[in-house]
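Quick one, C-alpha cells below. Sequence please?
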C-alpha cells in the first residue's frame, strides 16, 4: 500500500493541505491501512473519513493534515488529543513531536480505546502514545499543562477544563458549533490572555461528555 500512501500524500501537497516538511514526513510514515477496519483496507488511501464501528469514524486525511499544520507541532511537545478513534491521528502527531514528545489520547468508547491501543502497539507507537479511557471533555488534569491540545470531535463551545490545561504559549484546536457543522477554532494562550481565531468550516462527530453535548 506504500504506493497508494505516496499518491495520497502527493495529492495533499498538490492541493495545499500539506505545506510543512514535518507534516509531509509524518503522513508519509504512518500506515493508515493499519488503523482502518480489515474490510476497508483497500480504501485506506481514499481522502475520506471511514467507519471504525460504534457509529464513529477515522477522520479524512486532509483534515488530519489541516490540524497538524495549524498546531505548529515541535519535537518535545506534550500533546493531548480528545477522541482517539482508531489512533491514526495520534500516531501522525507522535511522529511530529519525536524525539522527546508524548501524546496522551482519550477515548470514551471502550472498544475504540482498545482498537486504538492495539493499532498503535502494532505500528510501533506504544511508547510515544498513551491511550486513556474516559470523558476527554474534562481534559487530563494529572498530566497538564499541555503544549498542544486538539479535539477530534465537535463541541458546543470550547470546553473550559481544556483551556485551563493549556500551557502558557500553548495552542488548542477544537471544532465548535452545532452538531451538523462547526468552525475549527484555534485558542492560543499568552499568559492570562486567550486569543481565539477561526480556521473555517469542518464536520466532526459530537463530543459527548460533561463539557460537550
Ligand atoms: N482521531 C481519530 C482517529 O484518528 O481515528 C478520529 C476521532 S473520531 C472523528 C471522534 C472520536 O471522539 C470518536 O471515537 C468518539 O467516540 C470520541 N469522543 C466523543 N466524545 C468523547 C469524549 N467526551 N471523550 C473522549 N472521546 C470522545
Amino acid at each position: 500500500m506504500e504506493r497508494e500512501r505516496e499518491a495520497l500524500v502527493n495529492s495533499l501537497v498538490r492541493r495545499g493541505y500539506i505545506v510543512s516538511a514535518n507534516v509531509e514526513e509524518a503522513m508519509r510514515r504512518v500506515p493508515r491501512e493499519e488503523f482502518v477496519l480489515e474490510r476497508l483496507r483497500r480504501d485506506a488511501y481514499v481522502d475520506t473519513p471511514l467507519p471504525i464501528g460504534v457509529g464513529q469514524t477515522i477522520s479524512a486525511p486532509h483534515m488530519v493534515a489541516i490540524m497538524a499544520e495549524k498546531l505548529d507541532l515541535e519535537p518535545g511537545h506534550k500533546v493531548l488529543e480528545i477522541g482517539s478513534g482508531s489512533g491514526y491521528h495520534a500516531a501522525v502527531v507522535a511522529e511530529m513531536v519525536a524525539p522527546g514528545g508524548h501524546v496522551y489520547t482519550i477515548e470514551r468508547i471502550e472498544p475504540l480505546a482498545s482498537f486504538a491501543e492495539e493499532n498503535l502497539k502494532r505500528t510501533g507507537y506504544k511508547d510515544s502514545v498513551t491511550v486513556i479511557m474516559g470523558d476527554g471533555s474534562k481534559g487530563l488534569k494529572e498530566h497538564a499543562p499541555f503544549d498542544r491540545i486538539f479535539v477530534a470531535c465537535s463541541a458546543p463551545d470550547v470546553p473550559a477544563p481544556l483551556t485551563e490545561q493549556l500551557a502558557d504559549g500553548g495552542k488548542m484546536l477544537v471544532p465548535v458549533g452545532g452538531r451538523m457543522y462547526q468552525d475549527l477554532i484555534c485558542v492560543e494562550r499568552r499568559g492570562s490572555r486567550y486569543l481565539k481565531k477561526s480556521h473555517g468550516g469542518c464536520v466532526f462527530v459530537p463530543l459527548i461528555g460533561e463539557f460537550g453535548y
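The pocket of S-adenosylmethionine is lined by residues 56-59, 82-83, 85-86, 88-89, 106-109, 112, 135-137, 152-153, 204-205, 207-209, 212 (CB under 6 Å). The beta strands are 50-53, 56-58, 78-82, 102-107, 129-133, 146-151, 166-177, 182-190, 193-202.
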